[in-house]
Amino acid sequence: MKLGRLAKGTLIYGLGGALSRLITLLTLPLFTAYLTPHEYGVSSQLTILAAFLAPLFTLGLGTSVAQVYFEHEATEHRSQTVWTAFWLLLASALVLLAITWFAAPWAAQALLGDAAYGKLVWLTAGTIALSMVTQPFNMDLQFKERAAAFVTVSNAVGIATVLTNAVLVVGFGLGVLGIVLGNLIGQFLAFVLFLAASGAGGWRTFRGSQARELVRLGIPMVPSFGSLYLVQFANRYILQWQADLGAVGIYTIGFSLGMAMALAVSAFQSAWTPYFMAQFQSPRDAEILFGRVMRYYVLGFGLLAFAFFALARPVTSLLTQPAFHSAYQVVGLTALSQFFWGMFLVLLPSCYYARDVKASGLVQAVAAALSLVGNYFLIGAWGIAGAGLGLAAGYGAMALGMYVWNHLRRRSALDVQYRWLRVLPFGLVAGMLAAALTAGPSAGLIAEIGLGAAALMIVTLVAYRTLDPWERTALRARLLVK
After folding, report:
1. What's the average model confidence in pLDDT over 116-144?
2. Range 51-75 average pLDDT
3. CA distances from 481 to 465, 468, 474 (A)
4. Of the given ranges (5-19, 81-95, 233-247), which has the lowest mean pLDDT?
5. Which of 76, 163, 190, 271 is 20 to 30 A from 371, comparing alpha carbons?
6. Structure confidence at residue 13 (pLDDT)
7. How large is the greatest C-alpha to C-alpha distance in the chain, in angstroms?
8. Cα separation of 145 and 8, whole Å?
């Protein structure tokens, strides 16, 4: 079955990253005991600085490497692509470090209101530089569909980073500096391990023709990465402006919990990119196949996103100190934003098949503009919860915009048949229950666990009934076999 390979890849990537994510969650009570909301706010702003600089200095190669890599099946061509991308990114990383060496105090003053944080800014730039030069080897493992190697390295890096952070924050009392140093050490380990695992030969290779093609295809995508940055992180600037760094710190805790959903979506993305590229020669089959992928994605990942709404209150209460308990308002909305991002990814192949990848950048730019306006008013009205709503709305606008573009261009791209009416009841029930669980008054820990579990059972039943009879039979058979 053609969908089997996609499901297997997603499962491997997802389970592989679950261990490091679990350790991160289990250590959250420790970090919230040793770091104040203000310190979490500082750490958060440094994180979004990294999220801004990384796409800018990677020159869009995160997109163009895949296009050049899959142009030919020859191993030599693909190794040359990986190493040419590495040398390009190394040069760009050195430029980044040189700029931040001089600009760090100014950036710290502008971002955090204190030039004394300049050292943290420069160390963060070092982490970004290492992540940039790691990217080609990271992608090489995914393109080769070596999921086991990829998740083994990712887990090792994630666990090492969390443990290093704990030692530096708790053992040495370094506060935010401990987090920044731990991330830097973890990223260096990632570079070493991904380089070793990739095994791409020809480290001296730099092909000018490939470099020009990588940059030509990548640079037009930089604005789209900027748009994605605005959708995901601009709300924190607005929240800091309308409230303070403490509010940003609380929001960041809820965001971090909700971003556990990104583990599943990222696993899907890692399996999805080589999967849909492999269907390039069979567009008519892809039209049927991608419609089924979307329906299964909405039901499966939609159910997972709802679980974050159902369990947000009790999990936040159990894993954080009282000063952070209001972060529950953001957990489900963050998970919902990642669900919408996955929908955007499922809709993306039409751009590739129509050879118009730049259209996705336009869609993201429009979504970013709408997100900025929406966040301003939503945060003004509802504070932290408004920031979560703005985040989910921004990603939702991206998915909707991509669908509209596909519909308008279906004659020149893929005419995928989506069965939206079949999943509409599921969406309505899940949406109403999610709103009730988030906006309702606190009922106490035990009652909240019970309410969440009951709501999750209802939504699971609706999702199951949404499947066709033969699909329900196949699902029961698969579950019984396991």
Report:
1. 92
2. 83
3. 21, 20, 11
4. 5-19
5. 271
6. 67
7. 64
8. 11
Instruction: Tell me the CA distances in angstroms from 95 to 111, 181, 190, 215, 369, one per residue in order.
Output: 21, 21, 21, 16, 29
State how far the alpha carbon of 97 is from the alpha carbons of 53, 131, 187, 198, in Å. 11, 13, 15, 26
CA–CA distances in Å: residue 163 to residues 126, 216, 431, 440: 20, 40, 37, 37
Length of the chain: 482
For the record, the structure tokens of 307 come out as 């679980």
Number of domain units in the chain: 2
- Domain, as residue range, for 169: 35-206
Confidence (pTM): 0.74
| Contact status, residue 378 vs residue 248, Cβ threshold 8 Å | no
CA distances from 121 to 207, 324, 425 (A): 34, 25, 48
421, part of any domain: yes
Beta strands in 63-176 (DSSP E): none
CA angle 325, 231, 308 (to 5 degrees): 35
Report DSSP state, residue 171.
I
Residues 132 and 235 placed together within one structural domain of the fold: no
- Taking alpha carbons only, the member of 48, 49, 45 closest to residue 176 is 45
Angle at Cα 251 formed by Cα 248 and Cα 254, nearest 5°? 155
Question: Which position has the token pair 């499922």?
Answer: 346
Indicate whether 265 and 199 sit together in one domain: no
